[in-house]
Amino acid sequence: MKLKLFLVDLNFQKLALTFVLFFQITFSNSQNYRNAVAYVNDFGRNETFINASMMEYSKTIALISPENRVNKSSTELVDKLVKLNEVLATHDKGFKNDTRLRDAMMELNTAVSVFMTSETSDFNDYKSQSLLSIEDITENFRLKELDIEKLYQKFRNYEMVKKEFGEQYNIPIKFYSGLNIYEYNTYQNLIFYKINVLDEKLMFAITNRDIPNIQICKNKIVEICNESLQKTKLYRDQFIDETLNSANILFSNFFLYQDITLLPITINFFQFSEQFQILKCKMVVDNSFIPADDYNKQVRTYNSLKNNFYDTLYEVNTKKNTLINNWVTTNSSFLKNNCSFDITNYKFLAEEE
User: Fold this and answer.
1) CA angle 128-148-252, nearest 5°?
2) Organism's domain of life (predicted)?
Protein backbone atom coordinates (compact mmCIF):
# COMPACT_ATOMS: atom_id res chain seq x y z
CA MET A 1 0.00 0.00 0.00
CA LYS A 2 1.34 3.44 -0.88
CA LEU A 3 1.37 5.88 1.95
CA LYS A 4 1.08 9.42 0.65
CA LEU A 5 -0.17 12.68 2.05
CA PHE A 6 -3.62 14.35 2.08
CA LEU A 7 -5.31 11.58 3.93
CA VAL A 8 -9.04 12.03 4.70
CA ASP A 9 -12.51 10.69 3.84
CA LEU A 10 -15.47 12.04 1.83
CA ASN A 11 -17.89 10.99 -0.90
CA PHE A 12 -17.23 13.64 -3.53
CA GLN A 13 -17.64 12.18 -7.01
CA LYS A 14 -21.16 13.50 -7.67
CA LEU A 15 -20.01 17.11 -7.22
CA ALA A 16 -16.71 17.22 -9.16
CA LEU A 17 -18.10 18.05 -12.60
CA THR A 18 -20.55 20.52 -11.10
CA PHE A 19 -17.71 22.51 -9.54
CA VAL A 20 -15.60 22.58 -12.70
CA LEU A 21 -18.56 23.86 -14.71
CA PHE A 22 -19.36 26.39 -11.99
CA PHE A 23 -15.85 27.84 -12.03
CA GLN A 24 -15.91 28.17 -15.79
CA ILE A 25 -19.30 29.94 -15.68
CA THR A 26 -18.41 32.08 -12.64
CA PHE A 27 -15.25 33.52 -14.16
CA SER A 28 -16.16 33.18 -17.86
CA ASN A 29 -16.90 36.87 -18.27
CA SER A 30 -14.01 38.06 -16.10
CA GLN A 31 -16.45 39.86 -13.85
CA ASN A 32 -15.75 43.23 -12.27
CA TYR A 33 -17.04 42.64 -8.78
CA ARG A 34 -18.86 45.45 -6.97
CA ASN A 35 -17.13 44.66 -3.70
CA ALA A 36 -14.52 42.35 -2.22
CA VAL A 37 -17.13 40.21 -0.46
CA ALA A 38 -18.74 39.25 -3.76
CA TYR A 39 -15.35 38.30 -5.19
CA VAL A 40 -14.36 36.32 -2.11
CA ASN A 41 -17.67 34.44 -2.06
CA ASP A 42 -17.02 33.25 -5.60
CA PHE A 43 -13.34 32.58 -4.99
CA GLY A 44 -14.11 30.53 -1.88
CA ARG A 45 -15.67 27.86 -4.08
CA ASN A 46 -12.22 27.16 -5.49
CA GLU A 47 -11.02 26.20 -2.03
CA THR A 48 -14.10 24.03 -1.61
CA PHE A 49 -13.23 22.21 -4.80
CA ILE A 50 -9.61 21.63 -3.78
CA ASN A 51 -10.54 20.33 -0.33
CA ALA A 52 -13.12 17.99 -1.78
CA SER A 53 -10.70 16.74 -4.44
CA MET A 54 -8.00 16.04 -1.88
CA MET A 55 -10.44 14.19 0.29
CA GLU A 56 -11.63 12.04 -2.57
CA TYR A 57 -8.01 11.05 -3.19
CA SER A 58 -7.37 10.63 0.51
CA LYS A 59 -10.30 8.27 0.96
CA THR A 60 -8.29 5.62 -0.88
CA ILE A 61 -5.58 5.86 1.78
CA ALA A 62 -7.82 6.10 4.81
CA LEU A 63 -9.74 3.03 3.68
CA ILE A 64 -6.48 1.15 2.92
CA SER A 65 -7.35 0.75 -0.74
CA PRO A 66 -5.36 -1.28 -3.30
CA GLU A 67 -2.29 0.48 -4.70
CA ASN A 68 -3.69 0.74 -8.23
CA ARG A 69 -6.73 2.61 -6.90
CA VAL A 70 -4.47 4.95 -4.91
CA ASN A 71 -2.41 5.71 -8.02
CA LYS A 72 -5.54 6.31 -10.11
CA SER A 73 -6.96 8.66 -7.50
CA SER A 74 -3.63 10.48 -7.23
CA THR A 75 -3.58 11.07 -11.00
CA GLU A 76 -7.17 12.32 -10.92
CA LEU A 77 -6.30 14.77 -8.14
CA VAL A 78 -3.38 16.22 -10.11
CA ASP A 79 -5.55 16.51 -13.24
CA LYS A 80 -8.19 18.44 -11.28
CA LEU A 81 -5.62 20.84 -9.84
CA VAL A 82 -4.08 21.47 -13.26
CA LYS A 83 -7.54 22.08 -14.75
CA LEU A 84 -8.45 24.47 -11.95
CA ASN A 85 -5.26 26.47 -12.50
CA GLU A 86 -6.12 26.78 -16.20
CA VAL A 87 -9.57 28.13 -15.30
CA LEU A 88 -8.14 30.57 -12.74
CA ALA A 89 -5.42 31.84 -15.08
CA THR A 90 -7.93 32.44 -17.89
CA HIS A 91 -10.95 33.81 -16.06
CA ASP A 92 -10.09 35.05 -12.55
CA LYS A 93 -8.88 38.66 -12.86
CA GLY A 94 -9.00 39.26 -9.13
CA PHE A 95 -10.70 42.12 -7.32
CA LYS A 96 -9.72 45.51 -8.77
CA ASN A 97 -6.76 43.71 -10.38
CA ASP A 98 -5.64 42.41 -6.98
CA THR A 99 -4.84 38.80 -7.86
CA ARG A 100 -3.06 37.83 -4.63
CA LEU A 101 -5.61 35.18 -3.68
CA ARG A 102 -5.64 33.68 -7.16
CA ASP A 103 -1.85 33.67 -7.46
CA ALA A 104 -1.34 32.11 -4.04
CA MET A 105 -3.86 29.36 -4.81
CA MET A 106 -2.27 28.66 -8.18
CA GLU A 107 1.14 28.40 -6.56
CA LEU A 108 -0.27 26.01 -3.97
CA ASN A 109 -1.99 23.89 -6.64
CA THR A 110 1.22 23.71 -8.66
CA ALA A 111 3.26 22.75 -5.59
CA VAL A 112 0.81 19.98 -4.71
CA SER A 113 0.78 18.69 -8.30
CA VAL A 114 4.58 18.63 -8.51
CA PHE A 115 4.83 16.93 -5.13
CA MET A 116 2.22 14.31 -5.95
CA THR A 117 4.04 13.31 -9.14
CA SER A 118 7.49 13.22 -7.53
CA GLU A 119 9.30 10.44 -5.69
CA THR A 120 9.06 12.49 -2.50
CA SER A 121 5.39 11.58 -2.09
CA ASP A 122 6.18 7.85 -2.24
CA PHE A 123 6.31 6.37 1.25
CA ASN A 124 6.44 2.77 0.12
CA ASP A 125 9.72 2.41 -1.80
CA TYR A 126 11.44 0.58 1.05
CA LYS A 127 13.15 -2.04 -1.10
CA SER A 128 14.63 0.28 -3.72
CA GLN A 129 15.82 2.71 -1.04
CA SER A 130 17.32 -0.06 1.07
CA LEU A 131 19.64 -1.05 -1.79
CA LEU A 132 21.39 2.32 -1.52
CA SER A 133 24.30 3.13 0.77
CA ILE A 134 23.55 4.56 4.19
CA GLU A 135 24.99 7.87 3.00
CA ASP A 136 22.60 7.99 0.03
CA ILE A 137 19.65 6.91 2.16
CA THR A 138 20.43 9.65 4.68
CA GLU A 139 20.65 12.23 1.90
CA ASN A 140 17.33 11.06 0.43
CA PHE A 141 15.73 11.39 3.85
CA ARG A 142 17.03 14.97 4.04
CA LEU A 143 15.75 15.85 0.57
CA LYS A 144 12.36 14.26 1.21
CA GLU A 145 11.95 16.22 4.43
CA LEU A 146 13.05 19.41 2.67
CA ASP A 147 10.51 18.90 -0.13
CA ILE A 148 7.76 18.29 2.42
CA GLU A 149 8.69 21.47 4.28
CA LYS A 150 8.65 23.46 1.01
CA LEU A 151 5.21 22.07 0.16
CA TYR A 152 3.65 23.00 3.48
CA GLN A 153 5.28 26.41 3.35
CA LYS A 154 3.05 26.96 0.30
CA PHE A 155 0.05 26.08 2.46
CA ARG A 156 1.19 28.58 5.10
CA ASN A 157 1.81 31.22 2.43
CA TYR A 158 -1.70 30.73 1.09
CA GLU A 159 -3.25 31.07 4.53
CA MET A 160 -1.20 34.22 5.16
CA VAL A 161 -2.36 35.77 1.87
CA LYS A 162 -5.98 35.04 2.86
CA LYS A 163 -5.40 36.78 6.19
CA GLU A 164 -3.74 39.82 4.57
CA PHE A 165 -6.41 40.09 1.85
CA GLY A 166 -9.17 39.99 4.45
CA GLU A 167 -7.48 42.61 6.59
CA GLN A 168 -6.95 44.98 3.66
CA TYR A 169 -10.57 44.82 2.52
CA ASN A 170 -12.05 44.38 6.01
CA ILE A 171 -13.46 40.92 5.24
CA PRO A 172 -13.56 38.18 7.91
CA ILE A 173 -11.93 35.45 5.78
CA LYS A 174 -11.36 32.18 7.62
CA PHE A 175 -7.68 31.26 7.75
CA TYR A 176 -5.79 28.54 9.53
CA SER A 177 -2.72 29.39 11.61
CA GLY A 178 -2.22 26.11 13.48
CA LEU A 179 -0.48 22.92 12.43
CA ASN A 180 -2.05 21.63 9.24
CA ILE A 181 -3.57 18.17 9.76
CA TYR A 182 -2.07 17.07 6.43
CA GLU A 183 1.37 18.28 7.50
CA TYR A 184 1.11 16.55 10.87
CA ASN A 185 0.11 13.29 9.22
CA THR A 186 2.86 13.50 6.60
CA TYR A 187 5.58 13.96 9.19
CA GLN A 188 4.21 11.06 11.22
CA ASN A 189 4.29 8.96 8.05
CA LEU A 190 7.88 10.06 7.48
CA ILE A 191 8.94 8.67 10.86
CA PHE A 192 7.38 5.32 9.97
CA TYR A 193 8.95 5.41 6.51
CA LYS A 194 12.51 6.14 7.65
CA ILE A 195 12.56 3.30 10.16
CA ASN A 196 11.11 0.86 7.63
CA VAL A 197 13.70 1.72 4.97
CA LEU A 198 16.55 1.18 7.40
CA ASP A 199 15.05 -2.02 8.75
CA GLU A 200 14.66 -3.32 5.20
CA LYS A 201 18.38 -2.70 4.67
CA LEU A 202 19.19 -4.31 8.02
CA MET A 203 17.20 -7.46 7.21
CA PHE A 204 18.98 -7.69 3.84
CA ALA A 205 22.34 -7.48 5.65
CA ILE A 206 21.24 -10.17 8.12
CA THR A 207 20.14 -12.44 5.28
CA ASN A 208 23.58 -12.06 3.71
CA ARG A 209 25.40 -12.32 7.05
CA ASP A 210 27.02 -8.99 6.29
CA ILE A 211 28.35 -8.03 9.73
CA PRO A 212 29.84 -4.63 8.73
CA ASN A 213 26.54 -3.49 7.21
CA ILE A 214 24.59 -4.89 10.16
CA GLN A 215 26.68 -2.66 12.43
CA ILE A 216 26.18 0.36 10.15
CA CYS A 217 22.39 -0.18 9.97
CA LYS A 218 22.24 -0.84 13.69
CA ASN A 219 23.84 2.52 14.49
CA LYS A 220 21.67 4.41 12.00
CA ILE A 221 18.44 2.87 13.25
CA VAL A 222 19.28 3.87 16.82
CA GLU A 223 20.01 7.41 15.63
CA ILE A 224 16.74 7.69 13.67
CA CYS A 225 14.66 6.14 16.46
CA ASN A 226 16.04 8.57 19.04
CA GLU A 227 15.47 11.45 16.61
CA SER A 228 11.91 10.21 16.03
CA LEU A 229 11.17 10.04 19.74
CA GLN A 230 12.31 13.64 20.09
CA LYS A 231 9.95 14.64 17.29
CA THR A 232 7.01 12.82 18.87
CA LYS A 233 7.55 14.97 21.95
CA LEU A 234 7.10 18.05 19.78
CA TYR A 235 3.94 16.56 18.22
CA ARG A 236 2.28 15.92 21.57
CA ASP A 237 -0.80 17.99 22.28
CA GLN A 238 -1.01 19.12 18.63
CA PHE A 239 -4.29 17.21 18.40
CA ILE A 240 -6.63 15.75 20.98
CA ASP A 241 -6.29 12.40 19.23
CA GLU A 242 -2.74 11.26 20.02
CA THR A 243 -3.14 7.71 18.73
CA LEU A 244 -0.85 8.15 15.71
CA ASN A 245 1.82 9.87 17.78
CA SER A 246 1.59 7.08 20.35
CA ALA A 247 1.89 4.49 17.56
CA ASN A 248 5.15 6.07 16.41
CA ILE A 249 6.48 6.16 19.96
CA LEU A 250 5.72 2.45 20.26
CA PHE A 251 7.23 1.79 16.82
CA SER A 252 10.46 3.66 17.60
CA ASN A 253 10.86 2.01 20.98
CA PHE A 254 10.38 -1.42 19.40
CA PHE A 255 13.36 -0.90 17.10
CA LEU A 256 15.47 0.26 20.02
CA TYR A 257 14.39 -2.99 21.69
CA GLN A 258 15.42 -4.88 18.54
CA ASP A 259 18.82 -3.23 18.79
CA ILE A 260 19.49 -4.63 22.28
CA THR A 261 17.91 -8.05 21.72
CA LEU A 262 18.17 -9.42 18.17
CA LEU A 263 21.27 -7.63 16.92
CA PRO A 264 23.79 -8.66 19.62
CA ILE A 265 22.60 -12.27 19.26
CA THR A 266 22.86 -12.00 15.47
CA ILE A 267 26.39 -10.60 15.45
CA ASN A 268 27.56 -13.10 18.06
CA PHE A 269 26.16 -16.03 16.07
CA PHE A 270 27.59 -14.86 12.73
CA GLN A 271 31.03 -14.23 14.22
CA PHE A 272 31.12 -17.63 15.91
CA SER A 273 29.78 -19.26 12.73
CA GLU A 274 32.69 -17.87 10.70
CA GLN A 275 35.19 -19.28 13.18
CA PHE A 276 33.35 -22.60 13.33
CA GLN A 277 33.40 -23.00 9.54
CA ILE A 278 37.16 -22.50 9.59
CA LEU A 279 37.42 -25.16 12.28
CA LYS A 280 35.28 -27.60 10.27
CA CYS A 281 37.47 -27.14 7.21
CA LYS A 282 40.57 -27.89 9.24
CA MET A 283 38.93 -31.00 10.68
CA VAL A 284 38.24 -32.28 7.17
CA VAL A 285 41.95 -32.08 6.40
CA ASP A 286 43.07 -33.46 9.77
CA ASN A 287 40.48 -34.86 12.15
CA SER A 288 43.07 -34.95 14.90
CA PHE A 289 43.47 -31.18 14.69
CA ILE A 290 41.35 -30.78 17.82
CA PRO A 291 40.26 -33.36 20.43
CA ALA A 292 36.81 -34.82 19.76
CA ASP A 293 35.40 -33.58 23.06
CA ASP A 294 36.51 -30.01 22.31
CA TYR A 295 35.07 -30.21 18.80
CA ASN A 296 31.76 -31.53 20.07
CA LYS A 297 31.66 -28.67 22.58
CA GLN A 298 32.08 -26.24 19.67
CA VAL A 299 29.24 -27.98 17.82
CA ARG A 300 26.94 -27.64 20.81
CA THR A 301 27.83 -23.97 21.16
CA TYR A 302 27.17 -23.40 17.47
CA ASN A 303 23.78 -25.12 17.63
CA SER A 304 22.80 -23.19 20.75
CA LEU A 305 23.73 -19.84 19.16
CA LYS A 306 21.96 -20.79 15.92
CA ASN A 307 18.75 -21.81 17.68
CA ASN A 308 18.78 -18.69 19.82
CA PHE A 309 19.29 -16.52 16.73
CA TYR A 310 16.48 -18.05 14.69
CA ASP A 311 14.07 -18.15 17.64
CA THR A 312 14.75 -14.51 18.45
CA LEU A 313 14.53 -13.49 14.79
CA TYR A 314 11.14 -15.20 14.49
CA GLU A 315 9.85 -13.60 17.68
CA VAL A 316 11.05 -10.12 16.66
CA ASN A 317 9.65 -10.37 13.12
CA THR A 318 6.30 -11.61 14.42
CA LYS A 319 6.02 -8.64 16.79
CA LYS A 320 7.24 -6.31 14.06
CA ASN A 321 4.60 -7.46 11.56
CA THR A 322 1.90 -6.98 14.18
CA LEU A 323 3.19 -3.49 14.94
CA ILE A 324 3.28 -2.54 11.26
CA ASN A 325 -0.29 -3.76 10.71
CA ASN A 326 -1.46 -1.93 13.82
CA TRP A 327 0.31 1.24 12.70
CA VAL A 328 -1.38 1.18 9.28
CA THR A 329 -4.77 0.65 10.93
CA THR A 330 -4.09 3.46 13.41
CA ASN A 331 -3.05 5.79 10.60
CA SER A 332 -6.26 5.02 8.73
CA SER A 333 -8.42 5.51 11.83
CA PHE A 334 -6.67 8.75 12.72
CA LEU A 335 -7.44 10.18 9.29
CA LYS A 336 -11.07 9.09 9.29
CA ASN A 337 -11.61 10.38 12.83
CA ASN A 338 -9.87 13.73 12.49
CA CYS A 339 -10.23 14.88 8.91
CA SER A 340 -13.71 15.86 7.88
CA PHE A 341 -15.05 18.35 5.37
CA ASP A 342 -18.68 19.35 5.03
CA ILE A 343 -18.79 20.34 1.38
CA THR A 344 -22.41 21.52 1.46
CA ASN A 345 -21.99 23.84 4.47
CA TYR A 346 -18.40 25.04 3.99
CA LYS A 347 -17.97 28.80 4.40
CA PHE A 348 -14.94 30.73 3.16
CA LEU A 349 -15.93 33.74 5.24
CA ALA A 350 -15.81 33.59 9.01
CA GLU A 351 -19.04 33.99 10.93
CA GLU A 352 -19.57 37.48 12.32
CA GLU A 353 -19.62 37.57 16.09
Assistant:
1) 65
2) Bacteria
